[in-house]
């Protein structure tokens, strides 16, 4: 749904500016997920299901706490559990709430060919408008975090909306509202960065010398950020990419490649037109027909 | 097969090849229009020709597959006459004479000239590249079997092959308009002896001087 209270910064497959005069005076928003405070209760998953009225298929246990096993069109957030043995030989249970990172430079939006199927609001939230989605899956190809999922039922793409419908009326996202330990907080991006800095300082004083904020610069920063105990090794957290960015192949395909290819096609056609104007057609005349008749009569 | 009113015409393309060619041509146009709709936002309006965005996404791969299958038959028939020979390389080196209609200075040409042969192999390469990369990109059935890196490479390759193919076909269409009589040859099947003598002299002699002067079945 196009929510008028949230103005549009970017719109997929659109080459002219979208309505974006109103910008939040307090800057963009962000959700901060503090993995060091997470107890893995999955209340956030439940709250997401409830608010968005989603009920995924009941799966089977595969020997981990991950349930469901992966993100899907009906599971927009999933807690991923990693058992990590640190260099001291102690076990650390690293739990990461996975879902859309709401990139400042969204690969899904860059790749999307359908006008208005993906928008980025001026508050930073990246939202899918399924009524414009054509189901091609280019967003999946473009995403550096493997987040969008195409529904088998309607062939539309789905992912976390950062509860754009709640945020537009001044509420926090459902997962934030429900988190019992305060591991998920929501506010302006600036406030969240400040809050994270305090958390990182605290963690460092407790011996996590590599604690830090995950707000990857490769995608222009994200509007969902993590506090990690091991910010130097984000891949420990169920393969959270260390340096995510839009793939150069996607950049070429959906960036400079588009105008260059159209220009090339137009120039090829123009070259033909001007050849016609300057040189003209190659025609067969009466003399050629006579020469052919003579040639034909010659014994071979 | 020859036209009763124009007994002196030479059959260049029999009905079977013409049907095959125009099937490929029709599906090429549909594939190009639906593909361009998904390639550049400025051309998304082309998706309306196919019943909207989702229908364009659904139809495009099937259109491409039909084009590919039809092209396989066409390429099979034409393969033999498109092998490059020494005189073809000489012909290509004289490109200036080619584009300026100074055909009398060029080496003799058989059934196809070097430009046509080059186009033929560009088409074969592009069609193969398009079908292979297209399968990887086909989200509804096949993408789940490939890692995202392969899908990204395939998406870029698909656009590149399509770009080269579209440019090649524009050259092909213009060349057919430029060399007068070519469109008639593919539309109605026949050329005049003068046309064959001027543009494809070796083929003209092969056809008219053969002991059995019936035209080839293709």
Q: Count the helices of chain B. How many?
A: 9
The CATH superfamily of chain B appears as Transmembrane di-heme cytochromes, Chain C
Helical proportion of chain B, percent range: 55-70%
The rounded distance between the terminal residues' Cα atoms of chain B is: 12 Å
What would the CATH topology of the largest domain in chain A be?
A: Alpha-Beta Plaits
Radius of gyration of chain A: 27 Å
Rough outline of chain A: elongated
Mean pLDDT of chain A, as a whole number?
Answer: 94
Order of helices and strands of chain A: EEHEEHEEHEEHHEHEEHHH
How large is the share of residues in beta strands of chain A?
A: 15-25%
Task: Explain what you see.
The complex is a heterodimer of chains A (300) and B (218). With 300 residues, chain A is an alpha+beta fold. Chain A folds into two domains: 8-247, Alpha-Beta Plaits, CATH 3.30.70.20; 256-297. Helices cover 29% and strands 17% of the residues of chain A. Chain A has helices at 43-52, 107-111, 138-142, 164-167, 174-178, 189-205, 248-254, 257-278, 286-297, and strands spanning 8-11, 29-34, 78-85, 91-98, 118-121, 126-128, 149-150, 157-158, 184-188, 212-214, 224-228. Chain A has a four-stranded mixed beta sheet with strand order 9-2-11-10. The relative contact order of chain A is 0.17. The model of chain A has no long low-confidence stretch (mean pLDDT 94). Chain B is mainly α and 218 residues long. Chain B has one domain: Transmembrane di-heme cytochromes, Chain C (Fumarate Reductase Cytochrome B subunit). Chain B has helices at 15-39, 53-78, 86-93, 95-99, 114-137, 148-178, 182-188, 193-199, 201-209; strands spanning 10-11, 190-191. In chain B, α8 packs across α9 (201-209). Chain B is elongated. The termini of chain B are close together. At the A-B interface, α3, α7, α8 and α9 of A face α1, α2, α6, α8 and α9 of B.
């Amino acid at each position: 749904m196009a929510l008028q209270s949230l103005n549009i910064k970017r719109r997929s497959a659109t080459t002219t500016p979208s309505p974006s005069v109103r910008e939040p005076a307090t800057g963009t928003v962000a959700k901060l997920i503090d993995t060091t405070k997470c107890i893995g209760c999955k209340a956030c998953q439940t709250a997401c299901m409830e608010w968005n009225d989603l009920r995924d298929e009941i799966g089977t246990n595969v020997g981990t706490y991950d349930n469901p096993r992966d993100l899907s069109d009906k599971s927009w957030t999933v807690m991923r559990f990693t058992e990590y043995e640190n260099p001291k030989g102690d076990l650390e249970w690293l739990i990461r709430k996975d879902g859309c990172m709401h990139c400042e430079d969204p690969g899904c939006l860059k790749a999307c060919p359908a006008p208005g199927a993906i928008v980025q609001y001026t508050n930073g939230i990246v939202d899918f408008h399924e009524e414009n989605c054509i189901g091609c899956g280019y967003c999946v190809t473009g995403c550096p975090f493997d987040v969008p999922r195409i529904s088998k039922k309607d062939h539309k793409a789905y992912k976390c909306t950062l509860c754009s419908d709640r945020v537009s009326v001044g509420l926090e996202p459902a997962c934030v509202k429900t988190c019992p330990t305060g591991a998920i907080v929501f506010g302006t991006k600036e406030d969240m960065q400040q809050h994270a800095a305090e958390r990182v300082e605290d963690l460092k004083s407790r011996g996590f010398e590599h604690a830090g904020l995950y707000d990857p610069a490769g995608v222009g920063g994200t509007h969902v950020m993590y506090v990690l105990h091991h910010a130097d090794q984000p891949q420990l957290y169920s393969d959270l990419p260390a340096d995510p960015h839009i793939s150069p192949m996607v950049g070429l395909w959906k960036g400079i490649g588009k105008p260059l290819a159209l220009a090339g096609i137009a120039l090829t056609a123009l070259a033909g037109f001007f050849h016609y104007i300057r040189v003209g057609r190659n025609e067969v005349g009466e003399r050629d027909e006579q020469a052919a008749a003579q040639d034909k009569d010659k014994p071979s | 097969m020859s036209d009763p009113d124009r007994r002196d015409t030479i059959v260049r393309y029999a009905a079977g090849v013409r049907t095959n060619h125009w099937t490929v041509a029709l599906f090429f146009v549909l594939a190009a229009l639906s593909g361009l709709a998904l390639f550049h936002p400025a051309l998304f309006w082309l998706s309306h020709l196919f019943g909207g965005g989702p229908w364009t996404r659904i139809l495009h791969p099937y259109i491409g597959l039909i084009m590919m299958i039809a092209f396989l038959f066409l390429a099979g028939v034409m393969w033999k006459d498109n092998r490059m020979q020494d005189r073809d390389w000489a012909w290509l080196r004289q490109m200036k004479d080619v584009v300026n209609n100074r055909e009398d200075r060029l080496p003799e040409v058989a059934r196809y000239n070097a430009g046509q042969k080059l186009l033929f192999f560009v088409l074969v390469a592009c069609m193969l590249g398009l079908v292979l990369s297209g399968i990887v990109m086909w989200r509804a059935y096949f993408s789940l079997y490939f890692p995202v890196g392969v899908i990204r490479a395939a998406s870029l390759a698909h656009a590149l092959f399509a770009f080269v193919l579209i440019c090649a076909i524009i050259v092909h269409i213009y060349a057919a308009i430029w060399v007068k009589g070519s469109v008639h040859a593919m539309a109605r099947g026949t050329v005049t002896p003068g046309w064959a003598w001027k543009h494809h002299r070796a083929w003209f002699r092969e056809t008219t001087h053969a002991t059995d002067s019936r035209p080839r079945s293709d």
